[in-house]
Design goal:
- Two copies of one chain form a homodimer.
- By secondary structure, chain A is mostly helical.
- Chain A folds into two domains: 71 residues, Arc Repressor Mutant, subunit A; 132 residues, Tetracycline Repressor, domain 2 (Orthogonal Bundle).
- In chain A, 70% of the residues lie in helices and 0% in strands.
- Chain A contains ten helices and no strands.
- In chain A, helix 5 runs parallel beside helix 8, helix 5 packs antiparallel against helix 9 and helix 8 packs antiparallel against helix 9.
- The longest helix of chain A is centred in the middle third of the chain and has 27 residues.
- The first copy, chain A, is elongated.
- Chains A, B: This is Transcriptional regulator, TetR family.
- Chains A, B: It comes from Micromonospora echinospora.
- Chains A, B: GO terms for molecular function: DNA-binding transcription factor activity; transcription cis-regulatory region binding.
Chain lengths: 210, 210
């Protein structure tokens, strides 16, 4: 198996394959942010990345394959969690990271394009889910540490708390169009921390309530 | 001005214009749910609704115009709020209504299609915002009554509490793909109520914190 044929993510860093992948994913991200998923054209990406069309088709096969690899690369490149020693400030760091990403002109447009594509393309929907799974697993230990410190109740669903921090920010991006500023991020973190402390994310709790 | 030329929303209920509008919007909703916004074709809608193409083009002009009117109709037709006398149970009624809507096969597909279209069509984005403005204004009094009863602090942003109930449900629909069941709805309501009681949605608070 040649280096070109190894699966993305297992390539030797700094090799030709890694350089080709980086150039193609950068071009794919630019094209997505500019024109959306529906106008993603592998021949155009090959031109932008200065890579042979055959290489690109052989390795990524389809726009959905390319977007899946782009999301995997974004997950690998994305920042590690911040640990501040307290749940509220950890969640605030997470919320501000999401807020910065979604308000960055290129990244915000890219996420909108991928989320729109995921509503009708199952492969893109899977790739998007994998991206968020990785990000949620990265940040979940902040909540587990808060459980150990006794800040939030035993049995708190750490993944659900992390999702709760992001949800209001995506709601603004995709639905309400309200401003996505730092105050909004801080409020999302505070709401999630307050609800977690109050036991709203304890697993299995809702099934017995009322 | 003939009845056919009056603006949508001002027509005499039960008249021919209202019947035409109902048939066209039903057909538009079916087509959106089946094929998405990108494949919305006014000639196809006219056929499905058994309405002349000229009438349809004159009155709605474009797929975006048709979707805007469909969202206005959905907002007008949607259920009024439930008032139970306590914030948690009011918000739970709201969350369950959103959950039922988003998991209904036709309605869920329709919302996904419209939200995807709104990411790249400003007119659809405006129409979507107006739809949620109407729904949020309908439910906000539940929070205002909770303020009057002393359940949540003075200065609580009622609109933000209502958005917070919906946000985790839309996050699951569009992003994580996790199941959207009644327990999820109940948890979204409990988290929003707990955070509201703890003062997380008090206006202007975040600007002075830390």
């Amino acid at each position: 198996m040649s280096a070109d044929e190894t699966a993305a993510g297992t390539v030797r860093p700094g090799g030709r394959t890694a350089r080709v992948r980086a150039a193609v994913l950068r071009a794919a991200g630019d094209a997505l942010a500019e024109h959306g998923f529906d106008h993603l054209d592998l021949a155009d990406i090959a031109r932008r990345a200065d890579v042979g069309k055959t290489t690109l088709y052989r390795r990524w096969r389809s726009p959905a394959g390319l977007v899946a690899d782009l999301l995997m690369d974004m997950a690998e490149q994305s920042l590690p969690r911040t640990e501040t020693g307290a749940l509220l400030t950890d969640l605030r760091a997470n919320a501000r990271l999401v807020q910065r990403t979604l308000t960055d002109p290129r990244q915000g447009a890219l996420f909108k394009a991928v989320i729109a594509a995921a509503t009708c393309d199952p492969r893109t929907a899977d790739a998007l889910r994998r991206f968020y799974d990785i990000r949620i697993r990265e940040w979940a230990p902040c909540v587990e540490q808060a459980v150990s410190r006794g800040e939030v109740p035993d049995g708190t669903d750490s993944h659900e708390v992390i999702r709760a921090v992001s949800a209001p920010l995506y709601y603004r991006l995709l639905i309400s169009g309200d401003p996505l500023d730092v105050a909004t991020a801080d409020r999302a973190a505070e709401a999630a921390a307050t609800a977690a402390r109050g036991g709203a994310y304890v697993r299995g709790k809702m099934e017995v309530a009322h």
